[in-house]
Specification:
With 254 residues, the chain is of the alpha+beta class. It contains five helices and 15 strands. The strands form two sheets. The protein has an eight-stranded mixed beta barrel with strand order 1-4-3-2-6-7-8-5. It has a seven-stranded mixed β-sheet with strand order 10-11-12-9-13-15-14, with helices on one face. β14 and β15 (245-251) form a beta hairpin.
Length: 254
């Protein structure tokens, strides 16, 4: 059985070149270009988990690739499918065996694309490579998470990125609204080996093996609404709304 843990969430920001996080509460690092997709990113590394801020530098290329069989379920194509609205767009889970994961997803009856070889070139000219796997379910209307396997060992990535980590912070939860709450609760336990934590009339809570909780509530439209972060430097919670996405900061002991 493949191991799955939370890797990152994607937040689309228009005019990303001019974006600064309000109050510099989150530190941002320039990423690079996905040259085969026409997108580019800026990253906020919490630890090995991060928030990816994404925008478009080549609209023509992105619209073309989003129509292909290989990329129509991709994170970049989501921007096209959602008319380039800002906000959180996709979740990505990390795996250490993407080929095994592919077989597991096929066994569940899911439509699978990949693994796809991916790369971007950093601003320092460094080529970073990874593999992506996309899944789709014809009986599921909401955009599903996708999977990443980094080509560098985790220990090397840790050493390379550690000076960018915001060690007073940790991602603790993701909040999702969906018209398919029951399907998410059932299928994400089965597909992604999440643990059922609790449920009431208002919210269902699942948890990944690495301790990230997913709080799912009912709504007419599926969307990722909020990233919850624990912060060692605060004594009271607060919420910031940034480009159609909510960030809730909570004291570590709450």
């Amino acid at each position: 059985m493949s191991h799955i843990q939370f890797d990152h969430v994607i937040h689309h920001i228009e005019n990303l070149d001019n974006f600064n996080y309000p109050g510099d509460i989150l530190a941002l690092t320039k990423g690079g270009k996905h040259q085969n997709l026409g997108t580019y990113n800026v990253l906020s590394h919490i630890d090995l988990r991060y928030i990816e801020y994404l925008d478009v530098y080549n609209m023509k290329k992105l619209k073309e690739v989003s129509k292909t069989e290989e990329q129509k379920h991709s994170f970049a194509a989501t921007l096209v499918h959602e008319s380039f609205s800002q906000g959180f767009k996709r979740l990505c889970f990390r795996t250490d065996d993407i080929e095994q994961l592919k077989e597991e997803m096929l066994a569940e009856g899911l439509i699978v694309t990949g693994p796809l070889e991916m790369s971007r070139v950093s601003n320092k000219g460094q080529k970073i490579t990874w593999k992506l796997l996309y899944i789709n379910d014809k009986n599921f209307n909401s955009k599903l998470p996708f999977f990443i396997q980094w080509d560098q060992p985790e220990s090397e990535r840790q050493a390379l990125l550690e000076d960018k980590f915001q060690k007073h912070l940790s991602i603790s939860a993701i909040k999702i609204e969906s018209p398919e709450r029951d399907k998410i609760v059932k299928n994400w336990q089965k597909w992604f080996k999440m643990t059922f934590i609790s449920e009431n009339d208002d919210v269902s809570v699942l948890e990944t093996a690495d301790g990230i909780q997913f709080e799912i509530t009912d709504a007419k439209v599926h969307k990722i609404t909020t990233v919850v972060l624990k912060d060692k430097n605060i004594e009271a919670p607060f919420l910031i709304r940034v480009r159609a996405g909510n960030y809730r900061f909570e004291p570590y002991n709450s």
